[in-house]
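Q: What structure does this chain adopt?
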Amino acid sequence: MAKSALDKDLKKVVQIESATYARSRSLAVPGLLVVFMIGAVVIASLSVGGPLKYFVFFAAFIAAYMALNIGANDVANNMGPAVGSRALNMTQALAIAAVAEIAGAMLAGGDVVDTVSKSLLHPQNALPVVAFIFVMTAALLSASLWIHLATFLGAPVSTTHAIVGGVVGAGIAAAGLDAIEWNVIGAITLSWVISPILGGVVAAMLLGFIKWQVIYREDRVAAARRWVPVLVALMTGVFTVYLVTKGLKRVWNPPTALVILVGVASFAAALFAARPWVMRRSRGMENRRKQIATLFTIPLIFATGLLSFAHGANDVANAVGPLAAIVASAQTGNADAESVQLPLWVLAIGAAGIALGLSLFGPSLIRTVGEKITRMDTIRAYCVALSAAVTVLVASALGLPVSSTHIAVGAVFGVGYLREFITNSGVPNPAVKPRTLFLEPSRLNETPEMALLNYQKRERRRLVRRQHVLGIGAAWIITVPASAVLAAVLYRVMWSIGG
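A:
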């Protein structure tokens, strides 16, 4: 009896401790966010002076908020497939992404960024400096709020499109419809269609090649020894070119011939190294798909890390580019600069905010991209990662406007729809023996035709969840107009208060 009472008391103590821990953790997250955002303001106050410095302080606060939201939403596109395939657990993915994003931002983020306004606003519609600062601040805040809402709803959206919508909306509110470069908006709208389709097609082609050349072979191990080194070398060559042209473009801009030479050399070196590595890994391997898939685990981890590095190098400008423009305008007293310096403290706010936002709020969207759209394994995730890099390079070479977010998510849909097509169309797999069709006792009176039809209906599967297709597609379409309307309202409020 006494022992029973003691057990109950101990359980109550454990419950109290658990509740206290949960409560303290729930308070720690908003406290950490407040400290970070106030810290951004403090850093700005130590770095900027002059009569317009208070506008910069407010913009630094908003830019920190924007960086948090980019970390929560955008980075999931790179890490989602790796987590969904179980190549990485959530903790490992967050750690790799945080390190790679910070490294990309700080090492290759560059010293100069083009102002967003120069590509979206007509030069002849130059704004007064205060109006320009309000346009950039309203754009930052509207994009941040929209991305926050999209993350809450579990929809990966393009942060670049959100910023573009914000600048357009605030620019219209400040200078009218004639101030906008509508041909640029048309190109961005075109990317809504081009990006996911290209990403999906390339990923499906890669997966189809692996299926028919490796998975659907009777001797899968022999096929893997032949083709996996080639695929690893292809990935190495593509990512080398991707990093040189995208991730490192702000610190190194070699000629095209040298880029091609570097890519070919990295392909050859990787092929030379991968053949003995695959041979060792496949020694004694069972002739099963799951065993073959393990050969793609390490290449996938490297691919996701490199994608995150390139993302940090490029997309940090979405978080702090407008802040850098505001700082330059406040210090010079004009808003006419074609490009602006990107101070180290501004870059640090973006890098730290992206890493912090990813760690605190990224897991939910990582699971959406990696698990909820379609089922992932290391082969499919490898195809998604390689597709993202290949598609960006091809689109850039052709001058097509694309979104890396839309490409990555489109690639996830592409591999899912290919699996669904193969499963439901009856495409034969030579490596699998046909199954005998047995009738259930309750269906003994069915004709063979009816039995086959009912069997096919039961076997027909939807391997891509349609609700995510519709939800994500809708979020993509309304990102620019939603950010634009919100930015216009915010600009009017700011102008009425401080204009």
